[in-house]
Amino acid sequence: xxxxxxxxxxxxxxASIRAQKTDDQEFDILNKSKQWQLELQDSGTKDWQSxxxxxxxxxxxxxxxxxxxxxxxxxxxxxxxxxxxxxxxSFKGNVKxxxxxxxxxxxxxxxxxxxxxATGTGAAPYVEDISKWxxxxxxxxxxxxxxxxxxxxxxxxxxxNDNNDSKKDYVRVRQYPVAKGQNFNTTTExxxxxxxxxxxxxxxxxxxxxxxxxxxxxxxxxxxxxxKLFSWDLKNQPSLLEGxxxxxxxxxxxxLYKDISIYTMKHITRF
Length: 271
Description:
The protein is mostly beta strands.
C-alpha cells in the first residue's frame, strides 16, 4: 500500500489548520487593539443622507427602528437598478469596519458588495474624489466602477448571475481597476474565493467585522448558529492608502444595515 498520498494529504491538512489558527490569532490581536480610533458611527435609525450619498436612481433607502433598509431596483440585470451607498468621509491607513447585516431578499442571483477605500483612478473625468463625478454613476453599471476606480471589493451573500440554488453563495475579493485590455473575471480576483458558506440566511442577523491592513484583509461573519473568518493576502497587491467605504447592492437585492462603525488606526500595526 502506498501511504505517500495519505501523508501528503495529512501534511496539507495540518498546514491549513496552522494557517487558520494563525489567522484567528492575528485577527483577534488586531480586533482588540487599543489603536483603533472611531471615525464614523451610524445606528441606521436616523437620516442616512447626513453621512452617506447614493449612486443609483431606482434605489430606495429607509431609516427604521431596526436599522437602515436598503432596497436596490426591482429589475434583475438592469444596470439602472443597481445601487451604491457611499460614506461622505474618506478613511486613511488601516481600517476596521463593523456592522450588523440582515439579508431581506430570497434571491439566488446577483451580488452584495462592500467597497473599501475607493477613489477614482485620477484619469479625467475620473478624479480621485469620486463625489466629483457622481453624475457619471447615476446608472451604476459595474464597468464604471471596476474600470475607473481604485478599490477593494468584498462580495458576500452573493450568487452567480445564472444560479438557482440558494445554497450556492460565495465570498470573493477583487481589486480595481481592471488592467487595460484584461478581463474583470480573471484578473481582478485575489485568491481564494469561498463557496457554499452556510451564512447569510434571509432575515437572520449577522455581525460583520472587516479589518484591512497593508498586508492582510480579514472578513469575519458571526451569526446565530455559526461564525467564520475569511482572509486574503494583500502583500503583492497595489497599496490602497485612503478612500471611501461603499455598500453596493445589485438590482433585486435588499438588506438591513445597523450599528455601522468605521475605525482607523492611530499607528500602523504589521505582522
